[in-house]
Amino acid sequence: MRIATWNVNSLKARLERVEGWLAQASPDVLLMQETKLSDDAAPTMPFRMAGYELVHHGEGRWNGVAIASRVGVEDVVTNFGLGPVRPGAAADDEPAHEARMVAATCGGIRVVSIYAPNGRALATPFYAAKLDWFARLRRWLEASAEPDRPLVVGGDFNVAPADVDVYDPADFVGTTHTSAPERAAFQALLDWGLVDAYRIHHPEPGRYTWWDYRAGNFHKGLGMRIDHLLATRQVMERCLAAEIDRDARKGKLPSDHAPLYIDLR
DNA sequence: ATGGTGGCTGGGCCA
């Protein structure tokens, strides 16, 4: 069983590339982020034609998460079960106002597709909201999931967990994605009972999932590892491999993220 | 130190 995650940066703009990647990589489950679509604009039919059910949770022009599965979809939960998102609501309003979380059970494994807030800059309300969002994710796991059951939390975490996950830690001092509170929020997920599946299989530095479109950063190798597949022990016991498909970042009009996948026996 | 690219759009905002 292959489970993948990919921040596609607009599923509308990327549909052909996603279809091509499904055909080539043949994942059983694909978690997507930044679909940038409303639910009624979700491309259900193209996925069905490729053999996948599509569960989409979006709000329109920003954010948006989805799960494509060819091994079934059960027990869908969106937005941490808080109800419909309300785009434009105040950041401190409840329920959460952005489409950043959808969960389903696929092939006997609970999968969660998440798109963590970027945070923009330290000492902004957006950064504080990012930390609050991670605290909410952790509380949701405590309330609605079991660390001794098969579970995968995957997506764009917008956190590089360690210095080896960025090309030059000095470049990130005073910025988001590498700050101690963000790393602590990531660690709190591991402490609950999740394992960073890619890092277990790849201790080496210089492995990234995102490269800025600008300044030729991809070709210079200037990236960050901010997309992750975190899995509970029952999944890790079955995990044979974890890979980043860097080739999918190449060519014309790619996403700025590469897909990441794990293979389970 | 700055700006660079891309995807919403239909002017900025966001990443």
Helical element count?
A: 7
**Helical percentage:** 25-40%
pLDDT averaged over residues: 96
Q: How is the CATH topology named? A: Deoxyribonuclease I, Chain A
Compute the gyration radius: what is it? 17 Å
Give the CATH architecture: 4-Layer Sandwich
State the distance separating the first and last CA atoms. Answer: 6 Å
Query: CATH-wise, what's the superfamily?
Result: Endonuclease/exonuclease/phosphatase
* Principal-axis shape: globular
SSE pattern, N- to C-terminal: EHEHEEEEEHEHEHEHEEHEE
Major pleated sheet: 6 strands, mixed
Main structural class: alpha+beta
Task: Classify the beta-strand content into a percent band.
Answer: 25-35%
How many extended strands?
A: 14
- Per CATH, the class reads Alpha Beta
Can you walk through the features of this model?
The protein is 25% helix and 25% strand. With 265 residues, the chain is of the alpha+beta class. It has one domain: 4-Layer Sandwich (Deoxyribonuclease I, Chain A). The protein has a six-stranded mixed sheet with strand order 3-4-2-1-14-13. A six-stranded mixed sheet has the order 5-6-7-8-12-9. Strand 7, helix 3 and strand 8 form a beta-alpha-beta unit. The chain is globular. It binds one DNA strand of 15 nucleotides through loops.
Which terms summarize this structure?
single chain, 265 residues, alpha+beta, Deoxyribonuclease I, Chain A, six-stranded mixed sheet, 7 helices, globular, DNA-binding
In short:
The protein has 265 residues and is of the alpha+beta class.
Helices and strands in order, then pairings?
Elements: E1 2-7, H1 11-25, E2 29-33, H2 44-49, E3 53-57, E4 65-69, E5 74-78, E6 101-106, E7 109-115, H3 125-144, E8 151-156, H4 180-192, E9 195-196, H5 197-201, E10 210-211, H6 217-220, E11 223-224, E12 227-231, H7 233-236, E13 239-244, E14 260-264
The chain binds one DNA strand of 15 nucleotides through residues 9-10, 12-13, 34, 36, 60-62, 118, 120, 158, 212-217, 253, 256.
